[in-house]
Amino acid sequence: MPTVTYVEADGARHVIDVPVDENVMHGAQYNNVPGILGECGGGCSCATCRCYIDEAWAAKVGGPASDAERDLLIGADGELKPNARLSCQIAMTPELDGLVVHMPEHQF
Ligand code: FES
After folding, report:
1. Would you identify the CATH topology of the domain 3-102?
2. Atom of ligand 1 at shortest range from CA of 37
């Protein structure tokens, strides 16, 4: 099963198995990883699941998948950071095995 490393703002790391086709937000929620809230349940409407893709993975994951995701990220950060994503919008694939995502200091 692919793994995702979730890195908290203070540097604490959580290496979690996340099944293929599951999204990165659920991977955190189901394993009690702090820092990703996911208040809308993955509906792309809250931005409390935002994360920053590690530089080494940015090209593989790609940019926001939709205008809605882009708008939410701008609303949360005040700008569109190049590596920002909503973790609920990233579905795991075998190619993403080893993905590293960084969490913001806070989601609000
Ligand atoms: S869980 Fe709400 S936007 Fe991702």
Report:
1. Ubiquitin-like (UB roll) (3.10.20)
2. 1
